[in-house]
Amino acid sequence: MSSLLDASEITYEEQVVWLEDLGSLDYVRQALDKTPRRNTKPRYARDGRMVGYAVLDDDAEPDPDSGLYRRRVFFLLPHDRDSQPHGPYAVGAPGEAVDPRTIEPRNPGAKTDRSQGRTAIASATS
């Protein structure tokens, strides 16, 4: 089961800012967070660490009720594959996880063999 975002939810993205080198990351988790600003690094209140975030363009408007912007945040939790290669996601990935190499502004990204840990299986059976 996938809980990927729909492209219609991220139409005002202008840029994706990465806080870490993506070379060693098979996947990142993504979520829409409500933030007071559209173009600065948002606060992070989850376990683990933020590895990236989206910057919204000038046409993005805050929610009329809360005054907050909905922005994409990319993160990893302590039990994810980058920290625990033999842990719960040695094969497979969380529903909200995508290959960071497939992420662009206004594009929710995709699951790939790499993000799903299938490359580890292929190399182990070769």
Radius of gyration: 15 Å
The structure class reads mainly beta
Beta-strand content bin:
25-35%
Measured distance between first and last alpha carbons = 28 Å
DSSP E strands, number: 5
* Average predicted local confidence, pLDDT: 91
Number of helices: 1
| Widest beta sheet: strand line-up | 1-3-4-2-5
Described by strand count, sense and barrel closure, the largest sheet is:
5 strands, antiparallel
Poorly predicted ranges: 122-126
Helices and strands, in order, run as EEEEEH
Helical content band = under 10%
Q: Which word captures the global form?
A: elongated
Q: How would you characterize the overall build of this protein?
A:
The longest helix is centred in the C-terminal third of the chain and has 8 residues. The C terminus is likely disordered. The chain has a 5-stranded antiparallel beta sheet with strand order 1-3-4-2-5, with no helix packed on it. The protein is mainly beta and 126 residues long. The protein is elongated, with a radius of gyration of 15 Å. Helices cover 6% and strands 25% of the residues.
